[in-house]
Predict the structure.
Amino acid sequence: MKLLTVSPAPHIHGKATTSGIMRDVLIALAPAAVASAVIFGLRALLVIAVCVASSVVFEWGYEKLTKRDNTVRDMSACVTGVLLAYNLPVTIPLWQAVVGSAVAIILVKQLFGGIGRNFANPAITARIFMALAFAGTMSNFTYDAVTSATPLVYLQNGAFSFSYSVRDLFLGTHAGVLGETCAVALIIGFVYLLIRRVISWETSVVYVVVVFALSAAFGWDPVRSILSGGLMLGAIFMATDYVTAPMTFWGRVIFGAGCGVLTVIIRRYGSYPEGVSFSILLMNILTPYINKLTMSRPFGGART
Amino acid sequence: MRKTGGVRTPHRKATSDSKGAQMTTPPEVILPMDMHRGKPAKCLVSVGDYVKVGQKIGEADGESSAHIHSSVSGTVKRIDAVNPATGGAQTRVVIESDGLQTFDETLAPPVVETLEQFLAAVKASGVVGLGGGAAPAGPKLTLRDPSKIDYLIVNGAECEPYMTSDTRTMIDDSELLWDGVRAIKRFLGIKNIVLAIEKNKPEPIRIMREYAAKEPIASVFVLPTLYPQGARLTLVYKVTGRIVPEGKRPGDAGCVVINCSTLASIMRYIKTGVPMVATRVTVDGSAVKNPQNVLVPLGAPIADVLEFCGGLKTDAAKIITGGPMMGKAVPDLSAPIVKSTGTLLALSEKEARLPEPSPCIMCGRCIANCPMKLMPVEIQNAYLSGKTERLRALKPGMCVECGCCSFTCPAGRPLTQYVKLAKTQLREKEASR
């Protein structure tokens, strides 16, 4: 007879796998890809394809070069690629998109040890890098072949209600980066992620609610405020990144609230119109401390 | 509903209609003197002795020990001092069966009229916790202050996949089980008796409800089908809302938890005078030819039990005593069935395949699903980086080793194993301080 396998319990495993989770995230991101193609034209799909392809190549190449286990099959690089593309305007030169992917995958992810080890969200950090390095092309927003300012700029100038209807904001038919404009598509993705139990509701909901409340306090139209800029994209897909966000319920509540407060402060006082990326990055840095602070109390255990 | 952690495992209770065939007597049985938790029993026989079924061959060494009785009639062939699988010291009495199954004629039902007599009978029965704990049943039922115990919870959760031996106890031995409930009510004076059963067992629930209807203090509590409802601390909380404090027992929360098959086995002794010499084992897994429940004489080698069930298919890859979540993979088919072996699984290569561990993506599933609300990933990290203070604060010692964290980990990390290692390391450090 063959040799028997001996290993510690448990001897069966659930269905969840890393690649399965990433596949679900990609499915959840799909409606926004369709929306971007409809709103901004087919070049949107080209930008997404370039970002995904270059992210995967950088991940594969770096791991090949450093002789590490190849993690391309877990599809996390695809997710990073799509998220990066969603943060770029449709007019972005493709070589700049490739540079962005390199920053995301090599600088932010691989140099810190690859999947699960990076402390900052790769796509967000790359977006911030590109906003600084390629300031001109990164703020060149066209919609319907007309270059225009994004709703957030109007919001800050107080002229908001003159430019975009809530319906436009909801459907995303306005200027902005690829993935952020269509709230409907993003919310469909959110519902899918909740049903599949990939993420839990607290980070996204707390984030949006805090922005809503503080916007109202600052005298902005709170509905337009939560539907503008990268808030929906950030709250649903970036602030919920496992690796860079807390692991406990209360940790995620704190994380979402912190993101909300920072976003509104930057929108109100900052020199950049948008604060979502910066606020998520800042909260990423705090994540290990939030995890420590919100350590779960064992069942029946004394407080330590 | 009181919320607890846990995971949705597959059920695979395909043998729940299998009553339990009496296994043919094996040519020899191996009876270890430590088939229970606690002190090993003291061996009473020598090589060459003739023993009969039910004859005591191991004497309990104190309260936290249990008697061992011969499961066959025959001759003591050898007494091993070493467990060949582990290399550890273990006294094992090997008896060659004469095939006659002659009962010890001195066996007679005990007189049980008082609490002392009841407890003496529990001890004499040789029964240990059949839910997997294998702790001698006597100490659990020896209450310091019965007035402080509000609940007796009879555990029929049977949350491990495949296992149906408790289901069969509740169906086939329902009379014995309820004799036990009534005995405990009479001698221990407990106010509430609750039979806790997972929702996926409609037949036992129906039968137990019929009995409970006739007993004013008894009721049936239907648990959700969520592993591990049968873990006693989870069970106490689900049924009563009470949380057993760290390092304490259910008794400190006014509860006694006893497995349904344990209670039925105690009553079988009180009724018949025959101590525990056999156990009902669910033999299942896709590499077994005829999966079924089997009444196995204690000490029967695993190979013989599998043979009785038609033998193994060619793709057998892993043999497990116990359920797939908490059971032990055995390296060697000559190992014996012991009192607490409720399940014997033979998994095929496909069933036994586990994912290769990949890097943690910090999804937090292990934390969200831990029934003890521990943080397995943090325990793993603290253990791997040797941070003792941090490890202590994370309390790996409270882990019940249910396996939910490993089961649910998308990166396939052996978290349960890390927590066990952390637990042991911490215990050793505490001991050396």
In short: Residues 115-272 of chain B form a domain with the Rossmann fold fold (CATH 3.40.50.11540). Chain B touches chain A through 70 residues (CB under 8 Å). Chain B has 14 helices and 17 strands. The mean pLDDT of chain B is 93.
